[in-house]
């Protein structure tokens, strides 16, 4: 039993909670309303509607690595579960799952990160070179990224990969514009 502690209901009605805003003529509910528009320090920053090239490199490389590593780890997990045999111990199965997931996740993550890095660099270069930001830059960067990524495999593989890259970027940009237009946010 603790000493010098008041009982739970003793003097509860006489207590008054401290309000630090009582002397200010501000309603506490309006004090923490955050703006819905982005705030900029300089007017020139508000005119720019895209990320800088460094932000693009970081964003696309990170997103590519994360997506590749996650999907590769899932693929490695499925492969390891399928490869398990009847007499395997739990310790052996867990080891197989961890090794397979780690290996495949690392490989896929590195590939997707490199693709993101190449795409971001090419897109930022095209925006700077053409001095405009439109869909053409994105699609051409996707074409060039696919072609460069598979260039060592031969011209046919590079052409196919370039077409796939351009098609994927075109579909992604089209879906982005459709979502902006038709989905209320």
UniProtKB/TrEMBL annotation:
One family name in Pfam for this protein: Tim17
Keyword Cell membrane: no
Membrane topology: Multi-pass membrane protein
Lineage: superkingdom: Eukaryota
GO CC term, one of those recorded: TIM23 mitochondrial import inner membrane translocase complex
KW Metal-binding (keyword) present: no
A GO biological-process term: protein import into mitochondrial matrix
Molecular function (Gene Ontology), one example: protein transmembrane transporter activity
Cellular localization per UniProt: Membrane
Predominant location category: membrane
Keywords: Membrane, Transmembrane, Transmembrane helix
Name the UniProt record assigns to this protein: Uncharacterized protein
Species this protein is from: Chenopodium quinoa
Originating gene: LOC110737922
